[in-house]
Amino acid sequence: MNNDKLHKKIQANLLAFNRAVSGGYESSRQMADDLLFAKVTGEQWKGSDSKQWANKPKPENNKIAKHVNRLLGQFERLELNAKISSASIEATDDDAELMQSRWRNDFNMSDGVEAQQAAADEAFTCGFGAFKISAVYEDDENPSDDLQNLSIDPIQSACTSVVFSAGAIRKDKQDATRAWHLIRVDRYDIEDQYDTNISPFPQKVGLFDWQETANNDIYIAHSYEVIDKVVKEYRFEDGFTITVDGRKRTDSLGEPVTKEELDDLLEFSEAEVVKRKVKYVEYSLMSGDQYLIKPMKTSFKTIPIIPQYGYHNVINGIEYICGEVARMRDPQRFENMGMGALMELLAESQTATPEYTPEQIARHGPAHSRKNIDKPSYLMSDPITDAQGNIIQTGPITVHQPAQVGSGLMAALSYTQQAQAEAGGAGQSTVPSSVSGEAVRQVNERQDDAFQPLMQNAMQATKALCKVWIPAAQALYFSNQRSIRVEAPDGAISQVETLQNEERNGIIGPFKNSAPGKYDVTIKAGESHKSKKEADRADAVEILKYTDSNTPEGKMALSLAIQSTTGEGTASIRKMSRWNDIKMMMTQGMDPNLKTDEERQYAEQVAQQMQQ
Question: Using a CB cutoff of 8 Å and minimum separation of 24, what contacts does 387-395 make?
Fold first, then answer.
């Protein structure tokens, strides 16, 4: 790409960013303020409240942070994660299980849990969180495009660092044509790394402070753009295909084909020519005036940044987003003000103060001044007399009572506490009763579904994350032969060789462990292997209460309990128990639900023994 084309592409990128930011600036600013309101000490008194309460106590009894933390605890106990299933003829159940095992590995081996928790925290607080998927080299010291892994990464302060193209209003933002993830970096480190002088991204956009915030700190942007292209596909009668994408030609197996080879095939064989659209995401790293990493094709078909919302509505084509802070901001402010008023009262004297004229205490001043020290039984004062000596006033001329809590303040505090209790709720959203896990069962006992939208949006975000991962995983893991690491539901780790030769429909080819076709994603609680194993173990122990361990049912329940244990020391007995399960189920004519190559080999041995 020549310099003119690069310059035009940079300008188009910046223009698209300006349009995207201008449409959502106020919303982003409000969400950023909400995030600060809940997380940073002193932010609850910013603005007009600070001026009104100048030189007065400004306490912060931050109930919002405690409320959000409670929601996060309930969310994390659910352990929501994705379940992959086949959704086309080409996709087999074995392929779906292989994809599931690799997804579990990528999620657990990268920052998947941290990313999910960070997105939920910000979504619950201000209404918008996000995470993203990145392709990373398997070996950084020996990078190879054929050996890349997918990593789930957290995004911090998504409301001010993530921008989607104007007009994208779907919750999963898969209708976005562009997206930007801004990161704060040290200017001089980046200039040394890329050997160039840079300006901050963007140079100027509205009033948003994405400019230089410290002596050396500036912002640069990870930029993503969805590219739609038309490719030509030659389909020959024997099922062989050649795809032409610009100057690039590849066959059904992904091998390169020259123009001369294609021309030779067309000369001797007829082929159906089909034009079809292909979509992929182009990635670049930008400063405010240049590409630090030029646009490059990725394995993603849609934007790999996935948002998670708190409360999300689209009205007249405009998004309205908020979190728990928006619902509880005013009650929180009122309680702070009420506490400030009480603190101001407490700062004053809590005892009544008598007032005398000078002539009344002229002889008794020292005693009055030391009353709180000496604590005398009584104090004396002289009466006030007129010119003739007649007594006019005895005792103090008035008594100053300590400040009292007014009925208005008491009513305001009572209302504030009630409003906060109502906003905080008593429970959280329910989930399907079929899901195992003690935490989930406790959730379903709650009757308050006030937080159902929060949990529902969290589930949709995790589903969107996995749906973005699937086509990228097919491109990276199953386009060439390689060994990939997979994780079973019980946490066991193994290696799988992809694209192994196997006979299908009378044809021998690299069909085994190839994961072709389409897949569907559902969200389940307790997908984490630890919570699932704990739930399985509890269920197995419960079954053993009602059956003898010598019966087939009891033996299987005992086997399930053994296989649900953790720890390196019990690995051998877990494997032996699993093999006993396979043998027992095959003897009963049941499907043993084989999951690994090792289990399949053992099942073949058992089948041979049964035949003999």
Answer: 393/357, 393/360, 395/354
The β-bridge partners of 522 are 83
Average pLDDT, integer, range 518-529: 74
Question: What backbone phi and psi angles, to 5 degrees, belong to 3?
Answer: -65, -35
Q: 564 and 540 in contact (C-beta within 8 Å)?
A: yes
Q: Over the stretch 382-418, which tens digit does the pLDDT of each residue have?
A: 888 877 878 887 777 777 666 666 666 666 667 566 6
**Rg value, the chain, Cα:** 35
Whether 210 shows a pLDDT value over 90: the answer reads no
pLDDT at 206: 43
Cα separation of 423 and 434, whole Å?
29
Q: CB within 8 A of 215, min separation 6: which ones?
A: none
Nearest CA among 136, 74, 75 for reference residue 111: 136
pTM of the model: 0.73
- 240 vs 62, 236, 262, 265, 514, CA distance in Å? 66, 5, 12, 11, 17
Strand partners, 319: 314
Whether 148 and 137 have beta carbons less than 8 Å apart is answered as yes
CB 331 within 8 A of CB 39: no
Over residues 88-108, the mean pLDDT reads: 89
